[in-house]
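Reading a protein record of the kind used here takes little practice once its layout is understood. Each number in the token line that follows is a code from a learned vocabulary of backbone shapes. One such record is shown here in full, so that the layout can be seen directly:
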Amino acid sequence: MFPERTGFIIWVSDLKAAKNLEKYGTVHYISRRMHYVVMYVNADRAEDTMRNVRKLSYVRKIERSYRNEIKTEYSKNNPDLTVLNNA
């Protein structure tokens, strides 16, 4: 139903110009203090989009977000060690 999305952290030198990144994907967050933008794009066009974004003059560095690869479902198969240590 929803398309697969990929996140990117884009380090920029000009925050006003960084607002133009909205035409390449969904801008989720702009850090004014650290000068980076968190942006999501469709996974099937991610490489082409980032190739175009990398050519922009105000973009310093692009990093891929690994958030969707982090395990978020946990199981309680391990025993609670705090009970064993207090005995």
Remarks:
- The longest helix spans residues 46-54.
